[in-house]
Amino acid sequence: MIYGLYLSATGVLTNSYRQDVIANNLANSETVGFKRDLALFHERLTESQERRLLPGYSDPLLEMLGGGVLASPTQIDQAQGELEPTGNHLDVAIQGNGYFKVNLNGQARLTRDGRFALDDQGQLVMANANGYRVVDPQGNPIMLNPRLPTTIGEDGQIAQRGTPVAQIGLFDVPDSSRITKEGGNLLSYPEIQQTRSIQGTLRSEFLERANVDPAMELTQLMEAQRQLEANANMIRYQDQTLSRLVNEVGKIG
Asked: Fewer CB near the last or first residue (10 Å), C or N of the chain?
């Protein structure tokens, strides 16, 4: 293995991965309740360190260079997004920790997307094509009378004509780092039955904006592009050096 080429190649791959993550964040900067992804990396140990070989097996100078950079699993930035007023009485934003739980045909998911609507059966559902039903703290679907005016309190209690009729459930998970995205603003958790009902603050007629700062993401995107180009240039320079070594130096004598 040509060590310099390997180190430069890891730089190209990791920065290409970083560009993809940042581009996805930018594409979802206007998506309700979206949480930005974090592109994380870790240093790879050298071959002798990974195999725990005795000192002297490899060149000490190369050992000091390290084993390159590898991508770590993407993590979700759980920071709060700004709340935006909508005037829609069925729009709800979570202020602080927690998730809404939705269910469709026995498949439970979590979400921070509080755009809700009533279906033809009067059930409270996500206002998108998925049709996932919003559940109460006990995990039951929420039924409302579509002909009556509806208000939602800060504790999630739903009232129609001043009479409490249901409550929107707010849930949390034991380890938020294990949450994964599924698309459609849905989140999955490996042991979804371990989610617990919590008390929190909901804001009616508001939605949570994505916690994406486009200016910061664009700055990081340009930085990743420069680092990718620098590593690609190093590969080209090393290739040219090897070519001269083979085609010119090898002919001497």
From this structure: C
- Residue at 134: amino acid letter: V
CA-closest candidate to residue 97, choices 115, 110, 84, 87:
110
User: 93 and 152: one domain?
Assistant: yes
| Residues making up the chain, counted from first to last | 253
Domains: count for the chain: 2
Residue 122 structure tokens: 């009067």
Across 39-132, where does the E strand assignment appear?
Answer: 41-43, 69-71, 75-76, 83-85, 92-95, 100-104, 107-111, 116-118, 124-126
Q: How far apart are CA 12 and CA 233, in angstroms?
A: 10
Q: Domain residues for 92?
A: 86-208
Rounded to an integer, the average pLDDT of 144-148 is: 93
Q: Which two tokens stand for residue 206?
A: 């508001």
pTM: 0.82
Q: What would the pLDDT profile of 223-241 be if each residue is shown by its tens digit?
A: 999 999 999 998 888 888 8
- Burial (CB count within 10 angstroms: exposed 0-12, middle 13-18, buried 19+), residue 82: exposed
